[in-house]
């Protein structure tokens, strides 16, 4: 990553600087991810900064490579109130700390740092404040990125503002009685930071190890799947790597992932076709291809329902947010129509009628299927609840027979979804239909993204947090980011 | 919705020899032409329950034949399976004496808007 490369080069420039910082920087490992919070020895760095403030001399570092200094401390916490405003702007622009710097310098010049802007303003001991300000600008974009909690409350965004005032005062205090004595409070704080940094390192290590083992497990699973496919779906107890997913389900998940990639491709094609204002005839061809693409997923789901209906009906193939809206193993067609009517604005009278009657008929069909499923559930409950001990085998056989009807319901629900999409295609003009399918695709893309974001949202963690708790969160995030599932 | 499980008895007295020799498919056709909307069903089948609810939800009053309650229901089931080309025998829907099909065809025709006109034409649905 850019930030790491810059850090490495910064290291090499530090030979002539008379403080203890360089040897404390850990060179970044290949498995490091931004998401694990500060990789740097926070404690030592702060110590160095304090020492620097104590020295109060203009360092050649600033005139030469202020940028390098800044890049060295990318995880410096947000401290100053006024920097938050500015960095929220830069935060929007990118998540790379390298380019955050260039927004910071408020020029558009690539990712090279401008020596002039920070340096020009530095004339006195308040220069170190500037340095810290600019480090904060780094901190914000990274914080947005970061999946895990911070290693200390001081790096937590939520605590940036209240902390900012007090630490800025402390800093000025340290600067003014620079003459030196690092007071007890500061010393304690530095010690705490060192502790936090150590904990952060440990957590990072555990997380990385878990990632590596998951990677190995994943490749094993994929190999098993390949083998299973070539052998004609021989079920070997759920896969060699101890996965608790049936082979039919795993195969469907893989096919669905491929379908999602195809979907993305189709959508880009439609988007460019719309922007290029293609002739209706050409657009129709593209759209027909997209409808066939949807038909494909319904066909795949039909196959999957034969081998593992529970995987479909419980929504395990989808992302959590989509699972929330799950109806009979997929999306609810009437909800889709409702969502679309707001987006599809200029419609003729006839089209509006068509859409409303489609909504009504999907609602009626959904209601009928739901009631049928309810009756199945009731019947199953009765079977399992009744029956004597002697009769249990027979009872189970009856229950199993009833369960086979589940496949029929999932099939009918998918049939309903498929018919709804076809009817939409019929009611709308070619251009409207193209826009409509784009809206559908984007909507579900966002829902899937929501699931990923939710899983990776920053949580409040205390210093004494459990390592396993932290890494579980991170692992969930990894899994869900690979899990762009669930659409139909 | 009215069930016609025992109504074959009405024909029995007058057409004993005829009904004994009647081909099940012919029976199906005859029964189907007897009402505007005819559903062949099994009392234990949940999908049949769903299709019944669909019609009732639309305000239609279908005639339902529960084949498991009919002494010759098995023959009719087999005939229906042959008619539909395999799969399950029920539910099967006839409207205005014409075959609509199993659940998937019924749903598809409802979604694409052809079911309601068919029902109106058969006199099963008024606006």
UniProtKB/TrEMBL annotation, chain A:
GO MF annotation terms: sequence-specific DNA binding
GO cellular component: nucleus
Domain DOG1, residue spans: 249-457
Domain BZIP as annotated: residue spans: 183-227
Superkingdom per UniProt: Eukaryota
Keyword entries, A-Z: Activator, Coiled coil, DNA-binding, Nucleus, Transcription, Transcription regulation
Record keyword Transcription regulation present: yes
Region (Disordered): 83-128, 145-187
Basic and acidic residues composition-biased segments: 109-128
Residue runs in coiled coils: 204-231
Bias kind Polar residues: ranges: 96-108, 149-166
Cell location: Nucleus
Family: Belongs to the bZIP family.
Name the record gives this protein: BZIP transcription factor family protein
TrEMBL record, chain B:
Family matches, as Pfam families: Glutaredoxin (PF00462)
Keywords: Cytoplasm, Redox-active center
Residue ranges of every copy of the Glutaredoxin domain listed in the record: 37-100
GO cellular component: cytoplasm
Subcellular location: Cytoplasm
InterPro entries the UniProt entry points to: GlrX-like_pln_2, Glutaredoxin, Glutaredoxin_subgr, Thioredoxin-like_sf
Gene3D superfamilies: Glutaredoxin
Protein family per UniProt: Belongs to the glutaredoxin family. CC-type subfamily.
Protein name per the record: Glutaredoxin-C8
Lineage of source species: Eukaryota, Viridiplantae, Streptophyta, Embryophyta, Tracheophyta
